[in-house]
């Protein structure tokens, strides 16, 4: 099916709603798509619990991974090819890194990482380097090839230009997810002129720069990103589902530690609970498995586990109020916790403070935690300038972190507190719910 | 949250990529959406195995159900309201029937219905009428209300006009799924001017007719439907996945009947295997459960069950050739079956003839099986004419059934037949695979 | 600005709403776009009088010409390049012919050609071959180059493959105008998957064939074309404006022949009236000039010329009734003409029978007038089959001409016939206007 | 055709690419659309010279006016209707003001207003109040009705809520043109979620406020506006065409004042040249007339008039360099002017400094020139807050004016300066053109 230079005898295409078509010409890419590890991404949603807020957001990480691959393919095949600053030998490692960059994501991975103290990037690396089908396919390209791909994803690869294709403040990953998530949720944000941005990208020594003539398209992209974060990714209903999900995992772990006897024993979770996850087990984890357990656990006798699973499955989520973590408010929170306990509602699981925070764009702050490479413009005179020094709009939002705190709780349980009139009244008052 | 006339105090909206927004003003609708039975539809994909061909087609039946509801809502609130032929009292039953019409669908329901001889419409009826949350919510509208909703869906409701809103050759169901499936797959078919069609719909005695001025929009809709069937719904790669899925279910059932000892006992399937499904069990069935089992069964010792599950999960599907079921070809099929057996590949599971068939539009054929109500035009002079008598294009395709037969088989297994050279050669020849 | 091989030092792009961007890499193309003859197409609307029906349809022939060029560019640069059946030397002649194929169009050219018995194709040829800027630019490519371009447009070029790119039943011209006209009018017809069609086009000896896998996209294209003809191009309101326009030109010509003294002498029309158009004069003709005259003529003393111009400018168009040109109906028409005369309304200008006719697709009918090259499919086995033999839908409409006749008249004038009660009543009766 | 309450017996619709359909239910609106003064707007482009940069931008002011009407119709019929703060009696005056707000625009009106010191708003008022068809139609609604409509447009109407519908920082006018101009040019800016903004608009005493939940949609709208200004409206190629157009009008006026004998006497311009424009003459002015003259003037003997007309018609525009009006640079400009004169190129017409300036959003600055009403949010607690106090992004750009200066000149003429080597060299140096 492939000829000598690793090209398929006939180009394969996948129909894609965002990029129209995903084009595959390399046998290596085709074979990677066919591995069990890559196909597993069909069973992990790109946006976790977001589908409970935006019913259209049911798309998988496989869907997104193909998109990132296609964007990098256009960069290297349509824009960079033939330019002296671009090393054609980096083409295949770039394509593979783009395709595989999310390989290690588990089901609902943000919650998972938080509860089980793990890191999806670590699993991405392991899937690429250890004994997997992906590793076998990558090795057909050379013994060191898997290591190179893993390094690009880990941002430790020597050629920073290649790294920046999928990890920078304007990379293929972000360009795909903003558009794709906007498409599936149906929101009108998330659109920007990617075709223009691609056309004005230029490889330079350690990075990819943007020709000045494309600055407004980049501004638009940054604004899209900002809007998507606050309108979609941090949507309070999504956060509420996330809070419940996290609490389910906590509860199951706690019960396991307390030697609770499950009707549906959490065999898939044992290694996670114990903190020693072997790769083979990890690869069995996907959202079907999680939802299978949640459904089973809905019938456990532990009332908290059962209730939380039921809430998640049937979208009976927590309500929320804005919460400003000042001293005064934190005192109020303590008081609320006490009242919850008194009312028989375990505040550990039913009164949750959750924060979202985003930095829409940042210039370079060497030495600081979470260093972010800034976007650079290539000016008409050949000079390189950092974006926020040229764009007033970007300058206006650059480096400004916005944080939002909310307090989540089950309004229905509180309203049902018929026998605990005083506690109920006080809780409602503290949560400012009386109207 | 609702005032006296059953309206929510504030309209709720869901962002929808196809209809922009889904508007909910009635408390009854809001409560139905919140039932576990309706939320379960999030775990059943609208297009079954299609996501293995079109990676974008990961949307659920809940997604589609909201869309059908919204279309009927626009019909009754924006177009029919105030017209003398429309009975305003039918509004709520129409909306509920639209929202709930797919409630009984199981996971991958076409295969399920075929293997287990069941009928999703029967389950829809039971979920509405038996002891469920949906039934409880519906009864708040009146004791007989669930029965009325079930009758509309079953097409036995006395007011045929209401029935036709969701069950005719141009109903809200079809109008939603054509557009929605096109949107999620990304294909360029499936588009037609629904807004125009809605504007020219007029309630008449037993049906809804279309003003003549909208005829071309209807032609376009029928052509869209035709294209979607052959380009998406009958796509041979999707059919291949469907074939494998069906064979997995067959195999599990057979093993169960043969008292095979499963590592993962198919407890969720027992009642299906035995043909006596109780509703409570049925409602636990969804695609998470199926995929959970398939993953577990991949490690069963039965080589057929394990292989088929692996193929389905990792998209290692069967290949196909066109097959014309003439006597001569059927002889060839027998010969092939014998050769497969000889080569050690069970033809029962690995050589499958599959047919797709569609009738893009049909006029009225009283007495015939599968009677289909034709589309009627309201001519400028007030006359009612059947569509195909007025539209040359529709006439050209009216009543013409198109059928397609394909033979599916695992090309990789055949190519691996190194020790059975002769059988292999002969199989390849009969399947016309030599090139 | 251009380097040795005729390429611009930097690619130029035009933003285009239909194709996103129009890419220009050849200095020759850039220079042709800059000629006065090409820029003149900005002042000729692509759809003539259609903007009076669909207010969005104000786009010019320059707009469309760039689109046709871009489609051919994609064919030759992205699809054909490197294929053995494609002669790379034909690239530039193909691009030029695409860009210039509409160069000879006059203002509202259908009416013009009809009234003045001229042919825009003849003027296209003359602009390319005679003493113009376009000719000078083309000659930089070779002395014979203009002749080659003209031959491609005239369909007499020896390489029929090249001819078919812009003149066949699925050429770049049609693919652009269907999409572009749909975009500007805003109708939902006119969409088809051009990207797919381009991808499956294959150059063959005397034609371009379509791989079988693209058949459904071609079916969709043909249906789009059909819908656009009847929904947009033959829209009766557009036809009404066309009828009035034609009658204005007739009237002006007649007055000129009768030595009527115009306040605004029709100097720009003299050569048209006399039937001896010199190229220089023709190139001065555009829709600004026409509208300038119509505005001036609104104040002429001739009541017919003044009234018709006023109707056209202020969109006070004729109404219409369906008319079936049977003997009986033709008798009725005669009677109506007599009644119009009696009522003082000149039927020559105010009672107009107009017909529209279209053949959505035709197979090959050698020897017949208006021979049309059929679309050929390239079957998987290498065989070439005519489209209608493979596609049931295309077969159903193939070769079937549809014709529509309408009778146009000024309803307002008839309604104003207060002193001629009997004639008015009879006219209204014959036109079936009483209700 | 209309019944007693002024409604048409059947709703009329226009297909619109931006809003899908324009709905007309009121006979008054239908009649206004049919007036010669409104139809004249078909012959005035919405974006003046922009079509020379973005070939798709050929849409007329009629096109836009229908759009503004439709947005206001949706506001008053779909959002405001029934709300206590909205006075239903203002409905019709709002719709008429929306439809007619641009009525007084002349051809290429920015240049016109500048050269002839006139004001299109003044003409809008006169067309509504003086002896026109529009005035006659409006008076059918009441003797004072035209005055009310004119006052709304002039912002002097007593009900400021009504005024704000078409004149505020988030009015129907802006919402239409941003989307429409984006659609026709094809740029990817200009999109925002208008449907959401409409849904959250609430009439309040003197204004229309936006519910807080729609704040992000408003931010997106403001960013769209910002991008459209710098990417489309101030595009330097468009400005170049504008510069040439202005200079043509200047030259014609000057020649007229110098008693130059035109071959094509500028009769349509006399009253403009003399500064005493009568309405009847003004209404004859449109872009057909302008282009007719420019074509005629291309053959005038005055070399400047002829050259400039030729440049405009054939898009042979001026080039530009950035120019910062510091003292130093102004000295350089003087030097350049001298050099141009020496080289025989009149700097009055061929060396033009042009500035663009925009204020993307402004809060309220009472007493300052060009007072702009800020956008107000309706907070969940009922409080009203000015937008930039709530939105960080809007705050960042609020009140910040951005200005851009460019120097335009004919590069071709300078390059042709073969006999004036020294001047040429010096000019090229001063303009920084050597590379």
UniProtKB/TrEMBL annotation, chains A, B, C, D:
Q: Give the GO terms filed under biological process for this record.
A: dGTP catabolic process
Question: Gene3D superfamilies from the xrefs?
Answer: Hypothetical protein af1432
State the InterPro entries in the record.
Answer: dGTPase-like (IPR050135), HD/PDEase_dom (IPR003607), HD_assoc_2 (IPR045509), HD_domain (IPR006674)
- One Gene Ontology molecular-function label: dGTPase activity
The record places domain HD at 61-178
Q: What is this protein called?
A: HD domain-containing protein
């Amino acid at each position: 099916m492939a000829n000598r230079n690793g090209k398929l005898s006939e180009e394969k295409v996948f129909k894609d709603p965002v990029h129209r078509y995903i084009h595959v010409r390399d046998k290596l890419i085709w074979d990677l798509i066919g591995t069990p590890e890559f196909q597993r991404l069909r069973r992990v949603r790109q946006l976790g619990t977001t589908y409970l807020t935006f019913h259209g957001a049911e798309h998988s990480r496989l869907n997104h991974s193909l998109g990132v691959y296609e964007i990098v393919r256009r960069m290297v095949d349509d824009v960079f090819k033939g330019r002296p600053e671009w090393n054609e030998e980096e083409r295949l490692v770039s394509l593979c890194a783009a395709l595989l960059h999310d390989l290690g994501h588990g089901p609902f991975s943000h919650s998972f990482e938080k509860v089980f103290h793990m890191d999806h990037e670590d699993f991405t690396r392991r899937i690429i380097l250890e004994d997997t089908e992906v590793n076998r396919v990558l090795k057909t390209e050379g013994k060191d090839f898997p290591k190179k791909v893993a390094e690009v994803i880990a941002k430790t690869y020597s050629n920073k230009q290649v790294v920046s294709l999928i990890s920078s403040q304007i990379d293929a990953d972000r360009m795909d997810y903003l558009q794709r998530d906007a498409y599936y949720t149906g929101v009108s944000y998330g659109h920007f002129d990617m075709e223009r941005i691609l056309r004005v990208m230029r490889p330079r020594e350690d990075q990819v720069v943007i020709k000045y003539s494309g600055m407004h398209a980049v501004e638009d992209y940054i604004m899209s990103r900002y809007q998507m974060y606050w309108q979609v990714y941090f949507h309070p209903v999504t956060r509420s589902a996330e809070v419940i999900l996290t609490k389910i995992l906590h509860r199951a772990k706690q019960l396991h530690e307390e030697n609770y006897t499950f009707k549906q024993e959490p065999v898939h979770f044992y290694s996670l609970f114990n903190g020693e996850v072997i790769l083979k087990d990890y690869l069995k984890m996907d959202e079907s498995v999680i939802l299978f357990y949640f459904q089973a656990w809905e019938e456990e006798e532990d009332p908290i586990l059962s209730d939380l699973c039921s809430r998640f499955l049937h979208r009976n989520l927590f309500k929320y109020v804005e919460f400003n973590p000042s001293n005064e408010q934190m005192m109020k929170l303590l008081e609320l916790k006490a009242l919850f306990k008194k009312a028989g509602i375990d505040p550990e699981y039913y009164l949750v403070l959750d924060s979202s925070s985003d930095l829409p764009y940042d210039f370079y702050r060497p030495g600081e935690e979470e260093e972010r490479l800034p976007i650079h413009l290539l000016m008409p005179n050949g000079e390189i300038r950092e974006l926020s020094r040229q764009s007033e709009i970007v300058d206006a939002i650059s480096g400004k972190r916005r944080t939002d705190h909310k307090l989540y709780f089950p309004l229905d349980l509180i309203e049902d507190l018929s026998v605990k009139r005083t506690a109920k009244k006080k809780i409602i008052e503290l949560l400012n719910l009386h109207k």
